[in-house]
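Morning F.,

Quick status update on the modeling queue. The single chain you submitted on Monday has been processed. Sequence for confirmation:
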Amino acid sequence: MKKTVFAALIALGLAASPALAASKGVKIGVLTCDVAGGVGMIIGSSKAVDCSFEGTIGKREHYKGSIDKLGLDIGVTGKGVMAWAVFAPGKLKAGALAGHYVGASAEASVAVGLGANVLVGGSDKSIALQPLSVQAQTGLNLAAGVASLRLKKAK
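Structure tokens below.
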């Protein structure tokens, strides 16, 4: 079972990343989010995120929001970290990452775990967030389904 979930995570990240990158433009930076711990409620979960965007030209912005999952989500996780490469059709104005993103999600944890979320949305649905590395978390959890990330520019 662990091997199947791990293989699915790798396949999700590898298969989706090149296709989304080609269709969404150039890499403009990296979004890294600290994710609150929580409990999966069998058919979904919601966790707070505190994010930092580091642009390729040194620009840094902070965002807050939530990541929600719909689908199989069973278990408990501690705090985690997710990182995405951010692709957009060109240079974006300040705060442009604020918005709603949706996409595929999969994760598994037994003490230490991995996960990946491939998301598209934001400004005019023109921004793609692709796993730069897999999510790192602790706990006992199995989740697969649709992820929704909502970001607001932090003050």
